[in-house]
Amino acid sequence: MKGIYILIIRVEKETLLSVGALGALTFNPGLYAYVGSAQANLGQRIKRHLRKEKRLFWHIDYLLSSDAAKVVKVLYKNANKTEECAVANSLSGKGAPMDGFGCSDCDCKSHLFRIGADYRFLLESMKVLS
Ligand SMILES: [Zn+2]
Q1: Are 56 and 62 in contact (CB under 8 A)?
Q2: How far is the CA of 37 from the centre of ligand 1 (A)?
């Protein structure tokens, strides 16, 4: 299985994390949506995201390795990497971007957004994986 995915992440409490080259970032409690793409082995990628113990490689690894962060929903869609950025850009209008997060290899403002509690609008274009 391949495609793009959105991780809905709950941050339980205010958390200060050092996120690789981005430096120290404060995550306020609430829900976040992270947009990613796996053009091979989507299932393996999701499993990796859900594992706490791992070598920290992507920005999202730093957030998800924190005990304060929990993936509460995984959405996916069979689509290519171009659409990953289109989805990220559409989220810019719905949530607050964490500047520079997850977009080292594209021109997006961010691939991580703090969103409101009602994220049903995402289900219009994505399927629930877990
Ligand atoms: Zn992008």
Answers
A1: yes
A2: 10
